[in-house]
Amino acid sequence: MERLLQLLRENARLSTRDMASRLGCTESEIIDQMAQLEKDGVILGYHAMVNAEKTEARGVTAFIEVKITPESGGGFDRTAKRIAQYDQVRSCYLMSGGYDLAVVVEGKDLYDVARFVAEKLSTLDVVLSTATHFQLRTYKHDGFILNSDQEEDRLLVSP
Amino acid sequence: MDIDSKLSDQLRGIPRSGIRDFFELVIGRTDVISLGVGEPDKPTPWPIREAAIRSLEKGQTSYTSNLGLESLRIGISKYVEEHFRTHYDPKKEIIVTVGVSEALDIAFRAVLNPGDEVVFHQPCYVSYGPSITMAYGVPVPINTRLEDEFALLASDVEKAITPKTKVLVLNFPTNPTGAIEPVEELEKIAALCVKHDLLCFTDEIYSELLFDNRKHKSIVEFPGMRERTVLLHGFSKAFAMTGWRLGYACAPQPLIEAMMKIHQYTMLCAPIMSQIAAVEALKQGAEAYEPMRQSYEERRNFVVKRLNEMGLNCFNPGGAFYVFPEVTTATGLSGKDFALGLLQDQSVAVVPGGAFGPSGETCVRCCYATAPELLVQAMDSMEVFVKKHQK
Known about the structure:
CATH architecture of the largest domain in chain B: 3-Layer(aba) Sandwich
Order of helices and strands of chain A: HHHEHEEHEEE
Strand order of the largest sheet of chain B: 2-8-7-6-5-3-4
Strand order of the largest sheet of chain A: 2-3-1-4
Largest sheet of chain B: 7 strands, mixed
Number of strands of chain B: 12
Largest sheet of chain A: 4 strands, antiparallel
Helix content of chain B: 40-55%
Structural class of chain A: alpha+beta
Number of domains of chain A: 2
Helix content of chain A: 25-40%
CATH superfamily of the largest domain in chain B: Type I PLP-dependent aspartate aminotransferase-like (Major domain)
Oligomer: heterodimer
Structural class of chain B: alpha/beta
CATH architecture of the largest domain in chain A: 2-Layer Sandwich
CATH superfamily of the largest domain in chain A: Lrp/AsnC effector binding domain/regulation of amino acid metabolism (RAM) domain
């Protein structure tokens, strides 16, 4: 299972047949395992990894540090789940350290994100403060190095 | 001036490497998927590269001791003890060389007198025969067979031994076949070395890259072998460091001392930046190579299955990153014609097996240390080619 997940994380478009021969099992075992992983909510989906810098419709991404007052009974959960509901929010994590939630927000432009912070996030009663950091350039995303300047200079034939 | 007439007779007797012939056909082409290389597809792991960069920033650009940095020899001693259960004194019994190629060359030159015979198994790495000749020795190849999965049989070794035999060379896992040696045979071969008082040079360059939970066993570990073995190893394959050119030899002091005489006058020392990188590689150990090893194993599974599905006879090799399918039975083509045709028709490069010795002439070597997506494409193209030529 672990190796199958790792293979899928590297390249989810490998055919089930190729995955089976690489892992030394049958294709139907792979299909069954994947179905089970999907059913168990281990695999949540299959996505393209996009280098947004090379697309026309590139927006902006902000990392927002949010400090909140924990609520009696629910702790941070209720607020975190509420924040996670917004479509603009790509990711939302509970953090240790100097702030409580790390919220990744995507918007069309700076104002779009600013409006979200001002109108939606800061207006929540339990939010004490926010600090918004805009992402300027991506060097690595989910294990993939972007805009690599590494050159393929291996000889085509060598002993 | 007629330069040809000025070249040494001994050199003229050495044929050009078949790999170079093939290389010249491929060079400059950008549309080729290459399974023709003898090295990992990934660059050296970052912490190792970083160690070398730091050393350059610090200005570590001098010569080192002829034997190599002491810290590296200490690291090698520990590593070898762990992997080959054999202790070598880092002060006297280890020499750091420019790749295993140099280590092998100076080992031959240190022990061979004109006419001394060196027994080795073929198909094998391209340099063994020529290195022996250049050291004035007589190469005595033993052909290994597909039906034995290119393992070396002790009975064949025994037949090849004459009163002039001085050295036996082993390389398991093997380039180009990926073959591994069964422990029972290895034990018998060790006994033959002792019985006939032979030296043994064992090229362990692929010893980390073993599959199916195999544990490596080297000939040096058998009784009576340490005193007569030169253990050759390096960083190229497991640590993906081919371009750093760094290897080493471990052997009893008189042998290292003899090799050292040649090394100090011809090479002086291995490049210091490569040595510093190697110190870091040993610190990383399995953490650096295990992910690559696992990935090679999975790619091997894929490639072996596909090759057999398309009708080629390909045994399941236990190590390294090569497969060595037999192509003549299925297609009627020699390994060389198969490789040429595949390159012309499908733009996939493999190496004709004959480049590694005559017993490989009906085979081709495919290196699967290539991106998985490209392997899928290469196998599909190869299948089209095989179907076209099927008998």
